[in-house]
Design brief:
The complex is a heterodimer. Chain A is α+β, with helices and mostly antiparallel strands. Helix content of chain A is about 60%, strand content about 5%. Chain A has two domains: about 250 residues, no CATH class; about 80 residues, no CATH class. Chain A has eleven helices and four strands. Chain A is elongated and about 85 Å long. Chain A starts with about 25 loop residues before the first helix and ends with a helix. Chain B is of the alpha/beta class. Chain B has nine helices and nine strands. Classes of the chains: A alpha+beta, B alpha/beta. At the A-B interface, helix 1 and helix 4 of A face helix 2, strand 5 and helix 3 of B.
Chain lengths: ~350, ~240
């Protein structure tokens, strides 16, 4: 009837297909949409940095005072050494209060910044808006994940440097001769130093994003992120990490104090005898009158000597302290690869998901 | 040019077909009404046309042969989904910024002028606007993209009568002034009478009738679009197709 015959509107592109919209446009979009999440992360990391700075400064000062004190054997100097050793309580181990708090930082960031990125869009229906804009849905998702991931990794990387700085006095050469405490690098918060901190944060963020895409609801996605991350962290710390490089094996009883001892066992005449500690019957047989150590209990060192006299050899496998940084890079590497894989899976889901 | 062209198009969710055997040509330069009861498959058809979902059977093209979701199709089609989803925590100005960033064309002066006209403050959060204002904001953002095709899914279902009227007036003005083709779905028949020049009637996942409103009325002899639609929607026998 009176239908208008419309030609294509002026300004519409030919059939060759127009070029995609530039990636850089997503920077402002991502900032506007996620500035509150990023501000939250900034507050958390900022508070952490200030706390590290405060306890780190006093630790470094105590260390400098103890080291520069002359003559070293004087009572005053010993007092300074003791003062430094007594500071050894904030975050030396994973079980200390600071350690526990620090260890949940990556997953807090991942769960609360990562899980909503896609889940909120799917939960509130705004994906119908976002995915029908000219930018295109998979490019939109990829740009967001990469941008946010890089920002979070950079921020946590900076804090990771601060954590490493905090620990510096404990690793300085010559601590032992001065009577200052020295801690094995592996016994510190491995996952929060140097490379591992940003890598774990990135992994947590990407796990969150993928969980959000799969579950499509914010709160369940956060819970799932916490659970998956906990499993991964336990698996890495408890099982994987010690196998990054083949442990060194020694029969010397003097394993370096800074080493990470993986396992110990005993042999006799080239055959496996027992592990890791001798059975009581054996001790009663060979070392029936064991010398006693502190508190009336037999000390392990004297048992070892006694057993060695009876032809037993003690073996120790361990990771030397010098492997700390190689291990950091190995862990950072596989976490980065895992993150890339999870991002790819997320993008694949975004592309194929039906509305 | 056909703004939407479907042949044998079908979409299945699990075991149920939301849309079946849909063959359809919707010409450009029209306001096309997609009418049918809830669950008729209207939203599914629209989602297929805008590329939010992909077909289980058959094929659909838009804007004269483009694949839905392709760059050309994304550039040329603006979609306002059901319940007009917006980022509720963002300001109106942020919504404008984001929409401008995500699209090749964006007529910012037009968007600003329209929002001023509607009395929607740029600093207000989208979630604090009234339902009518949210719908108008979503529509303004869509129109500022200067699309060839504007797709609206149940745009007025949640609006009060005044907001409904204002919304449709904006749509019609754009269609008339800028030659934007419009494809809108609705289960509210009375709204469509003065709006639509092309009709697609759907029920139970199938297209029952499609054609220019004038032609359909002339051929059928009924006085109004509403009567015509009701007649066909009451017919539930599968033979009554197109």
């Amino acid at each position: 009837m009176s239908a208008l015959t419309m030609s294509a509107r002026p300004g519409s592109e030919g059939d060759a297909g127009p070029r995609p919209i530039p990636w850089r446009r997503m920077a402002g979009v991502t900032w506007r949409q996620h500035r509150y999440a990023l501000a939250g992360v900034a507050v958390l990391l900022g508070a952490l940095a200030v706390w590290l700075w405060i306890i780190g400064t006093s630790l470094h000062q105590a260390y400098a005072a103890a080291v520069s004190c002359r003559p070293a054997s004087s009572g005053a100097c010993q007092g300074l050494v003791n003062a430094f050793d007594d500071m050894n309580n904030h975050m030396v181990s994973a079980a200390s209060p600071g350690g526990v708090f620090l260890q949940v930082v990556p997953v807090l960031i991942g769960a609360f910044a990562g899980a909503p990125v896609l889940a909120r869009e799917l939960e509130t229906g705004t994906f119908r808006y976002a995915w029908t804009q000219g930018f295109g849905r998979w490019r939109w998702a990829l740009a967001k994940l990469v941008l946010l991931g890089v920002v979070l990794a950079a921020a946590t990387g900076a804090v990771g440097v601060l954590v490493s700085w905090y620990y510096q006095p404990y690793f300085a050469a010559g601590n032992q001769s001065l009577g200052l405490s020295e801690i094995p690098p592996f016994a510190t918060l491995f996952s929060l130093r140097g490379v591992a901190f940003p890598a774990w944060t990135l992994a947590a963020f990407v796990i969150g994003a993928l969980a959000g895409m799969l579950i499509r609801r914010v709160v369940p996605a956060i819970v799932a992120t916490l659970a998956v991350y906990a499993g991964l962290a336990v698996a890495a710390g408890g099982f994987l990490r010690e196998h990054y490089l083949t442990p060194l094996v020694t029969t010397s009883p003097n394993v370096p104090g800074t080493a990470w001892v993986i396992s110990q066992w005993w042999t006799r005449d080239g055959r496996f005898a027992f592990a890791p500690n001798p059975p009581l019957s054996l001790l009663n047989q060979f070392c029936s009158a064991p010398p006693t150590g502190k508190g009336g209990k037999p000390s392990f060192g004297t048992f070892a000597q006694c057993l060695a006299q009876h032809g037993y050899t003690q073996w120790t496998s361990y990771q030397p302290a010098s492997r700390f940084w190689p291990f950091q890079w190995i862990e950072g590497g596989w976490l980065l690869a895992l993150s890339a894989l999870l991002i790819a899976a997320t993008i694949w889901l975004v592309r194929r998901r039906a509305a | 040019m056909n703004i939407v062209e479907a042949s044998g198009l079908g979409k299945r969710y699990g075991r149920t077909w939301a849309l079946r055997e849909c063959t359809l040509e919707i010409p450009a330069g029209r306001v096309t009404a997609l009418v049918g009861p809830n669950g008729a498959g209207k939203t599914t058809l629209l989602n297929l046309a805008v590329g939010l979902t992909s077909p289980s059977a058959g094929a659909v093209t838009v804007l004269g042969g483009r694949r839905p979701g392709s760059q050309g199709a994304l550039d040329g089609i603006a979609f306002v989904a059901q319940d007009t989803p917006l980022y509720k925590t963002l300001s109106v100005a942020d919504m404008i910024y984001i929409t401008r960033s995500l699209n090749r064309r964006f007529d910012q002066p037009y968007a600003r002028a329209r929002l001023d006209e509607l009395g929607i403050p740029a600093k207000r959060r989208a979630g604090k606007l009234s339902g009518g204002q949210q719908a108008q904001l979503a529509l303004t953002l869509a129109l500022a993209r200067r699309p060839q095709l504007l797709v609206l899914d149940e745009p007025v279902a949640a609006l009060d009568p005044v907001a409904r009227h204002d919304f449709m007036a904006t749509v019609l003005a754009s269609a008339a002034a800028d030659g934007v083709s419009v494809l809108l779905s609705s289960h509210v028949l009375t709204e469509l009478e003065r709006v639509a020049s092309y009709l697609v009637l759907m029920s139970r996942g199938q297209v029952r009738l499609a054609g220019a409103v004038d032609d359909l009325l002339a051929a059928d002899g009924r006085a109004s679009l509403e009567e015509l639609a009701l007649h066909y929607l009451r017919e539930t026998t599968p033979e009554v197709t197109r």
